[in-house]
Amino acid sequence: GYPNVGKSSLINSLKRSRACGVGATPGVTRCLQAVQLDRHIQLLDCPGVVMETGTPPAAAPLRGALDPQRLRDPLGAAAAILRRCPPEQVGGG
């Protein structure tokens, strides 16, 4: 699945313990991890996957593919977000 959609959090909820590390930024899960849920069920936690779509690099942060703190051009990502928002939601008034 995509980065930061709750794959690890879902496994933790099902396991009812902290079996997988979770965080607010992409990249916490770095490798495949098998978690035994019960005697018959084993779940796999894996890093997020973002397929290359040929879209401009400013769209990568919108898909959760990049940590916002590591962006070279945060204004480009912010502009891409604003282009997708209705003007009445952004105006604040």
Automatic annotation (TrEMBL):
Domain G: 1-51
Keywords, alphabetical: GTP-binding, Nucleotide-binding
Keyword Nucleotide-binding assigned: yes
Top-level lineage group: Eukaryota
GO CC, alphabetical: nucleolus
UniProt key word GTP-binding: yes
Record GO terms (molecular function): GTP binding
Record-given protein name: GNL3 protein
Classification lineage: Eukaryota, Metazoa, Chordata, Craniata, Vertebrata
Name of the coding gene: Gnl3_0
